[in-house]
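User: Teach me something about this protein's shape.
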Amino acid sequence: MTGASGAEKDKTPARGIVGWCFYDWANSAFPTVITTFVFAAYFTKAIAADEITGTAQWGYAISLSGLAVAVLAPLLGAVADFGGRRKPWIFAFTVLCAMATALLWQAKPDVSFVFLALVLVAVGNFGFEMAMVFYNAMLPDLTPKDRIGRMSGWGWGLGYAGGLACLGLALIALVEAETPVFGLDKDQAEHLRATGPMVAIWMMVFALPLFLWTPDKPSRGVPAGEAFRKGWASLVGTLKRVREYKDIARYLIARMIYTDGLNTLFAFGGIYAAGSFGMDFSELILFGIAINVTAGLGAAGFAWIDDRIGPKRTIQIAVIGLTVLGGALVLVEGKTLFWVFALPLGIFVGPAQAASRSLMAHMAPAEIRTEMFGLYALSGKATAFMGPALLAWVTVAFGSQRAGMATILVFFVVGLVILSSVPDRRR
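Assistant: First, the predicted structure itself:
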């Protein structure tokens, strides 16, 4: 199946493009506030028995969630291809994420709430990741080939802006407020638990432009049972056919590895800052705001660079930057040096993600592009459990968060080495 032609994509209304990009603004609140900064740190510091145990438990929960995504994303993606429409899938998984996130209000600062918190975070993360599969698949149908890099980068950039705005709201209304809104009780951590419902509302409100403005493929009228059968057959066929495209297979393996490192960095950045550098919740939110600024600038700035020098070189620059600065963060002591190396690291986060999406669009043969994007989704989720699981195991084995965080660098280096052998193909 092929995507829409360039002429057809030019007909996409401007508000449809805005609606697509704005979904990134909506859902970025979840990884920024919940799985990276505020709630992740709250869990390890106030709910878990201790920070080391909490870090490991958080890692296992995220790993199981990633494993579920790896199993179901390719199949449901193939099913959606036969059904035609993607927005109903995005809506269903967005609602799932929002509901689980809202229920985090129930996770009180007591070890008896560990299981509840982990289940809700895992379910929320599953919904978030699954919605992204169908969201990303819409891109080639909305923009011409020569603008894929820009659109992908602008989407990521707006996402970082959304994360920044949500963190800022949390800072003003909840964490930093002497008297939090609605008279929330700080002794019961209500000002931190309230970030769950806040993020849920944020997601559902700001996701509306996508559902109202952005065009979707028409339904094919295929019954659900038939769509599942054909989807399974298509998935098997895709896995067989990709062996004929060695360059694409090599790229997907490289992306699978460095993306695992990047996702793990997101999941444990706030936990590491809190545990190894003694940052409190207010400092974590300030750090989150600052790094979202640099990440947003990087994503937007590299959007043009992607279309100019190519997505492969853009990815290489980004991953090298992440490796060098990440290595420094594992070695340095003190909050000042942490800030010095952490803020520039954000510049390279967005380009690594956005250029990965655009490189797949350039490499995939037109006649099987949709199927290849299904495999692309698999490459981003198939080993999503490995990074958090390895970090959790090393953290426990060495009794050190620094040792656990160092495992992320291995994923960056290995992914970069494999990527170097991928041809620089651009249409």
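Now, about its shape. Residues 1-9 have pLDDT under 50 and may be disordered. The two ends are 18 Å apart (CA to CA). If you'd like, I can walk through any region in more detail.
User: That's plenty for now, thanks!
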